[in-house]
Amino acid sequence: MRPALALVPGGTPPPLLPAATPPPVEDAPLLDAYSEAVVGAVERVAPSVVRIEVEHDRRRGGGSGSGFVYTPDGFVLTNSHVVHGAKRITVQLADGRRVPASLVGEDPDTDVAVVRIAADGLEPATFGRSSQVRVGQVAIAIGNPFGFHATVTTGVVSALGRSLRAQSGRLIDDVLQTDAALNPGNSGGPLVNTRGEVIGVNTAVILPAQGLCFAIAIDLVQFVAATLMREGRITRGWLGLGGQNVALRRHLVRRHALAHESGVLVLSVEKGSPAEAVGLREGDVVIGFGGHPVTGVDDLHKLLSGPRVGVAAPLVWLRDSQRIEQHITPTRSPASRD
């Protein structure tokens, strides 16, 4: 027997809403395949995702964010801004266990931090290569926004090679832009592809905007994390430039007999920096440093490690069609001068 329609005040039946139009039959398999891909990716990465709770002093109170298991022996990745200055850190695992954590090291310049927990049965995440990410591919974010555990959002990779200013004041280069929705509490959680491989660490949103969210590329994160696990901090040389990856024009590659086809486009030059001292300008393209090719910002980050601080080395860049080489002396990064 069909149920009677409920009456609104006055006895008038409510208007009937038109039924949702089903997708065309030929689109249904595509939507099913997309759903299956997202479900499969979430099932693979969800056991690695954790909630991170921090306690500060009485004035600052506490906060929370996300993270994910990096190694089976208890190293966990998150954002520096999630755990910076914390007096106490607690990690809640996907199975509900709550365990204390200690800070291994953090790098405010890239907003990466590593904490460690003592727990068994940990499932580390699987990692992809951000260098192989393409604009338009599906991106899946998982984290704990506003304390809602294991929340999933999806979108696409909107752009590659963005620059984002960290709380330390330094530009984080090689940032992925996505429209997968992020909210407070997502910070430190993984951005994954449809295979469930981590391609970035979610770090920031632009609050007035819609669909402008950012993640630190996992190639950079793994390099920083390995150094933090080994040394507890990053001692980084500083040139005073901000940039992003750029493809070189083919005639420039041929003219200068370059073995690579990309470099770092200079977007900004800091006042009083080594970059300013050697005459670097916005619009220049850095292609070499210290006798090594520079194909992107990851190369430059790796080459500006501790032993480079205070040691002059040749910097090579292109300006229009001209090749310029000058010796430059990296100074210590402002964030690590304490």
Q: Can you describe what's shown?
A:
The chain is an alpha+beta fold and 338 residues long. The chain folds into three domains: 46-117, Thrombin, subunit H; 126-231, Thrombin, subunit H, CATH 2.40.10.10; 237-336, Pdz3 Domain, CATH 2.30.42.10. Helix content is 16%, strand content 38%. The protein contains six helices and 21 strands. The strands form four sheets. The protein has a six-stranded antiparallel beta barrel. The longest helix has 18 residues, at 28-45. It is globular. It starts with 27 loop residues before the first helix and ends in a 6-residue tail after the last strand.
**Helix content, binned percent:** 10-25%
Mean pLDDT: 88
Oligomeric state of this protein: single chain
Q: What's the overall geometry?
A: globular
Count of alpha/pi helices = 6
Biggest sheet overview: 6 strands, antiparallel, barrel
| % residues in beta strands | 35-45%
Q: For the CA atoms, what is the radius of gyration? A: 24 Å
CATH topology of the largest domain: Thrombin, subunit H
Looking at CATH, the homologous superfamily of the largest domain is Trypsin-like serine proteases
Low-pLDDT windows of residues: 1-11
Number of strands: 21
Q: In order across it, which strands form the biggest sheet?
A: 1-2-3-6-5-4
Task: Provide the succession of SSEs.
Answer: HEEEHEEEEEEEEEEHEEHEHEEHEEE
| Overall tally of domains | 3
